[in-house]
């Protein structure tokens, strides 16, 4: 019984041997140097879309991307708002027949009628 109380008071042995050798491996060092010599330049990484083309601070890049996304959406919405109607494209000879279904034509006519009434009231 005396032995078990002595074992309880002893701290477990800690293995303090290093994970990697204390001397640097010359082949590994040379390998790293070789890889760094052949490291691609920033422009090449930007061209391959590995790095962003922006010169903004890394903390601002996410906000910059979000702004670009919203600007692109605004631009597309502006273009969609000003696109010609199917009727105008048929008159110009771009379309041969209206691509909308009868239900879509009806719904658009209803919306136009409501817009006229609201604007005229």
Automatic annotation (TrEMBL):
GO CC annotations, alphabetized: nucleus
Keyword list, A-Z: Nucleus, Repeat
Cell location: Nucleus
Name of the protein described by the UniProt record: RPEL repeat protein
Biased composition (Polar residues): 1-12
GO molecular function: transcription coactivator activity
Region (Disordered): 1-41, 94-121
Biological processes per GO annotation: positive regulation of transcription by RNA polymerase II
Biased composition (Basic and acidic residues): 25-41
RPEL repeat boundaries on the chain: 30-55, 74-99
Organism: Sordaria brevicollis
Superkingdom of origin: Eukaryota
One Pfam assignment: RPEL
């Amino acid at each position: 019984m005396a032995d078990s109380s002595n074992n309880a008071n002893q701290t477990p042995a800690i293995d303090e041997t290093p994970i990697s050798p204390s001397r640097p491996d010359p082949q590994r060092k040379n390998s790293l140097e070789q890889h760094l010599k052949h490291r691609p330049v920033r422009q090449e990484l930007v061209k391959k879309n590995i790095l962003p083309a922006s010169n903004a601070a890394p903390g601002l890049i996410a906000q910059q991307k979000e702004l670009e996304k919203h600007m692109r959406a605004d631009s597309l919405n502006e273009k969609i708002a000003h696109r010609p109607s199917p009727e105008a494209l048929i008159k110009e000879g771009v379309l041969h027949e209206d691509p909308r279904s009868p239900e879509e034509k009806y719904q658009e006519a209803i919306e136009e009628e409501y817009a006229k009434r609201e604007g005229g009231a």
